[in-house]
């Protein structure tokens, strides 16, 4: 049990209050929902006060806008070919140039943003859903189900993520669903491991014992008491994995086992321009830059998020004081 | 689990609300080896009575109570034998589902550390309503109303606001009041309080104890209070059981145990309390040595190495918990009786070699 030496702020003030003869009144007084909203807003502002996090956030925001509004703001139809305008360099008419078939690269990147976002978010959701379920069950139930589930995860983990994704994509045939499944499955074991460790740690906490002592069922303990307490690391991991998902999805399309052409997938676009580098560097470069920007931005945000949410780093004062 | 075959039903209005018999809890010591941490623990609580269980860390107090509540495996332990008759039913033979209906509703539990026994990411209201709705037919709105009522009952100022608070927004004393409110919420017949004030500082401690006493007395709730602090026990308990190294070494009414301790360990505990009045002694008496590790030799008295009265017989023959001459219900597990002036005499009927 926590040593009495490590008192929280509120308890210290309670001691002070008692010493001064006041009624016992904690320093941090319970607040209403509006205060809590304001607090959250303050935290968000604080988070983005850092210029690097701000720029990363801006990049992601722009990409999300591009993904949502793509069809309306794109100057050209991303699939429309124009033999007359084949392989033109960046110009006023085609900001980022055109590819061999005369398709506008800027429009294709905008259209690719939607695809990329959909595929990466889908893959991460799949990995979180399956991985966390496995991890929660394994970490809470333990015993042989733990052994079986985690050995399964270990088998998946034994293959390098990209290789696993390529094998799966090759088995399933190209397509958007394939990419989501392939990238999602290759990320599942990581989520399962992290969730299992967090679950095991939370399961022996006294509040779980206390919840058992008031008659909570095991399902309730797991879903209502343990799950909310392990979300922090899962959110951080999901953010970091999002960047990996973008990269892997692009790699799959680059290798020709991902999204089918003519869909404007960034990785596929890089591949299309691969042979044209000498005559049309812009065909590969701009989709590549889009990938780099997005991955970098997501990584930076994930990293910052970890600093804020991760209990182990001690950044969170409240939880830090108790552990 | 216990192999006791269907315990005879205890008739309604039995003397004891909770009657624990010969409880043995074990912990895994690697592989398939299990080490007993409590030996033949027998404790009983009458209706409306407060039983204080006192002993140092590791003496088996908390493990005994966790066993009774079916909270084993708690930290990897198990119950190897024994009975715990609560309200006519043996808790140790009940299924998890049946136990769940008793826990929180008929038996309330208060844990040691209010800092860790409330879920940090759930509001006070959610945690209180959860218990209420699990055991009563209250609607969500009624449960909220009742939760508010309960917070007022445990004297939490500005209860409506505190109800929506999260645990980190409340102080330790406040949180322990919330725990008491939760324990009281479904009108239990028994409250088990495991070191309820240990994590609080002294002034808050007195406050919380007074509250616990008042709220349980007025409802006629039986209480088992576990503490290593004799002062806490003395202020609350009607009857006291002293535990040492997994055994009950002395039990009796508070007056008997505190006034005429019959086990050298109890005597040592009482002597080590500093008095406010009277002359200051040079050095506060303490009990030398450390308690034995679980799984040690099974022969002799487990307190002998630290006992100032120990003789060779104490190493070979374990004294049974037996009634002290002339005092009903007062039992001690010692070969000797301690007179009021602190001398020891062999117990009646046994021949000492002292």
Helix content of chain B: 25-40%
Q: What is the N-to-C order of secondary-structure elements of chain B (H for helix, E for strand)?
A: EEEEHEEHEHHHHEHEHEEHHHEEEE
**Main CATH class of chain A:** Mainly Alpha
Content-based structural category of chain B: alpha/beta
List the helices and strands and how they pair.
The complex is a heterodimer of chains A (323) and B (354).
Chain A (H helix, E strand, L loop, with lengths): L8 H11 L13 H16 L2 H23 L31 H37 L1 H16 L2 H12 L3 H28 L2 H8 L4 H37 L11 H7 L8 H29 L7 H6 L1
Helix pairs in contact in A: 3-4, 3-11, 4-5, 4-7, 4-9, 5-7, 6-7, 7-9, 8-9, 9-10, 9-11, 10-11
Chain B lengths: L15 E13 L5 E3 L4 E6 L3 E5 L6 H8 L8 E10 L2 E2 L5 H7 L4 E4 L13 H12 L4 H14 L5 H5 L8 H13 L5 E5 L7 H16 L4 E6 L2 H7 L2 E6 L2 E7 H6 L4 H8 L41 H4 L5 E2 L7 E2 L3 E3 L5 E3 L8
Parallel strand pairs in B: 4-9, 4-10, 7-8, 8-9
Antiparallel strand pairs in B: 1-2, 1-3, 1-5, 5-6, 10-11, 11-13, 12-13, 14-15
Question: What can you tell me about this protein's structure?
Answer:
- With 323 residues, chain A is mainly alpha-helical.
- Chain A has a single domain (45-79, 96-322), classed as Orthogonal Bundle (MetI-like fold), CATH 1.10.3720.10.
- Helix content of chain A is 71%, strand content 0%.
- Chain A has helices at 9-19, 33-48, 51-73, 105-141, 143-158, 161-172, 176-203, 206-213, 218-254, 266-272, 281-309, 317-322.
- In chain A, helix 3 (51-73) packs across helix 11 and helix 6 crosses helix 7.
- Chain B is of the alpha/beta class.
- Chain B has two domains: 49-79 and 95-244, P-loop containing nucleotide triphosphate hydrolases (Rossmann fold), CATH 3.40.50.300; 260-274 and 298-354, no CATH class.
- The longest helix of chain B is centred in the middle third of the chain and has 16 residues, at 202-217.
- Chain B is globular and about 65 Å long.
- The model of chain B is unreliable at 1-11 and 349-354 (pLDDT under 50).
- At the A-B interface, helix 1, helix 8, helix 9 and helix 12 of A face helix 2, helix 3, helix 5, helix 6 and helix 7 of B.
């Amino acid at each position: 049990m926590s040593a009495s030496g490590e008192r929280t702020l509120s308890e210290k003030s309670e001691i002070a209050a008692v010493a001064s003869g006041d009624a016992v009144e904690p320093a941090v007084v319970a607040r209403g929902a509006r205060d809590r909203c304001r607090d959250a807003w303050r935290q968000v502002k604080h988070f983005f006060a850092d210029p690097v996090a701000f720029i990363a956030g801006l990049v992601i925001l722009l990409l999300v806008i591009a993904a949502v509004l793509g069809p309306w703001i794109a100057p050209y139809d991303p699939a429309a070919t124009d033999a007359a305008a084949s392989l033109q360099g960046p110009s006023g008419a085609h900001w980022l140039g055109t590819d061999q078939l005369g398709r506008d690269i800027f429009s294709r990147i905008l259209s690719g943003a939607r695809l990329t976002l959909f595929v990466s978010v889908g893959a991460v959701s799949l990995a979180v859903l399956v991985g966390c379920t496995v991890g929660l069950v394994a970490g809470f139930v333990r015993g042989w189900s733990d052994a079986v589930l985690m050995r399964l995860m270990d088998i998946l983990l034994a293959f390098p993520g990209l290789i696993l994704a390529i094998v799966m994509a090759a088995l399933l045939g190209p397509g958007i669903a394939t990419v989501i499944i392939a990238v999602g499955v290759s990320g599942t074991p990581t989520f399962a491991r992290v969730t299992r460790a967090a679950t095991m740690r939370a399961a022996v906490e006294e509040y779980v014992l206390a919840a058992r002592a008031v008659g909570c069922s095991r399902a309730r303990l797991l879903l209502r008491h343990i799950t909310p307490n392990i979300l922090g690391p899962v959110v951080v991991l999901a953010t970091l994995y999002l960047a990996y998902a973008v990269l892997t999805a692009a790699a799959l399309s680059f290798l020709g086992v991902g999204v089918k052409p003519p869909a404007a997938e960034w990785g596929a676009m890089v591949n299309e321009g691969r042979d044209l580098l000498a005559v049309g560097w812009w065909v590969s470069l701009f989709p590549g830059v889009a990938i780099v920007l997005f991955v970098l931005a997501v990584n930076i945000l994930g990293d910052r998020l970890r600093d804020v949410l991760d209990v182990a780093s001690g950044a969170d004062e409240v939880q830090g004081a108790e552990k | 689990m216990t192999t006791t075959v269907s315990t005879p039903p205890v008739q309604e209005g039995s003397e004891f609300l909770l009657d624990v018999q010969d409880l043995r809890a074990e912990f895994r010591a690697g592989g398939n080896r299990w080490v007993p941490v409590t030996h033949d623990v027998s404790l009983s609580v009458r209706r409306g009575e407060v039983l204080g269980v006192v002993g140092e860390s590791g003496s088996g107090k908390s493990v005994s109570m966790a066993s009774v509540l079916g909270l084993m495996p708690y930290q990897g332990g198990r119950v190897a034998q024994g009975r715990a008759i609560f309200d006519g039913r043996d808790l140790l033979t009940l299924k998890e589902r049946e136990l769940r209906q008793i826990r929180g509703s008929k038996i309330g539990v208060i844990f040691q550390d209010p800092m860790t026994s409330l879920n940090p990411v759930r509001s006070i209201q959610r945690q209180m309503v959860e218990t209420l709705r699990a055991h009563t037919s209250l609607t969500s709105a009624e449960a909220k109303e009742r939760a508010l009522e309960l917070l007022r009952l445990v004297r939490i100022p500005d209860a409506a606001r505190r109800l929506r608070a999260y645990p980190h927004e409340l102080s330790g004393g406040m949180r322990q009041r919330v725990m008491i409110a939760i324990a009281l919420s479904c009108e239990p017949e028994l409250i088990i309080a495991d070191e309820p004030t240990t994590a609080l500082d002294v002034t808050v401690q007195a406050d919380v104890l007074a509250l616990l006493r008042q709220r349980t007395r007025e409802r006629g709730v039986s209480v088992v209070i576990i503490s290593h602090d004799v002062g806490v026990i003395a202020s609350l308990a009607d009857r006291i059981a002293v535990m040492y190294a997994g055994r009950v070494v002395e039990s009796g009414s508070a007056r008997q145990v505190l006034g005429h301790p019959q086990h050298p360990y109890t005597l040592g505990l009482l002597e080590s309390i500093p008095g406010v009045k009277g002359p200051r002694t040079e050095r506060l008496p303490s009990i030398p040595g450390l308690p034995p590790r679980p799984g040690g030799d099974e022969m002799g008295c487990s307190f002998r190495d630290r006992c100032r009265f120990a003789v060779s017989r104490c190493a070979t023959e374990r004294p049974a918990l037996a009634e002290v001459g002339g005092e009903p219900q007062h039992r001690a597990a010692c070969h000797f009786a301690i007179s009021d002036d602190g001398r020891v005499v062999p117990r009646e009927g046994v021949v000492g070699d002292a």
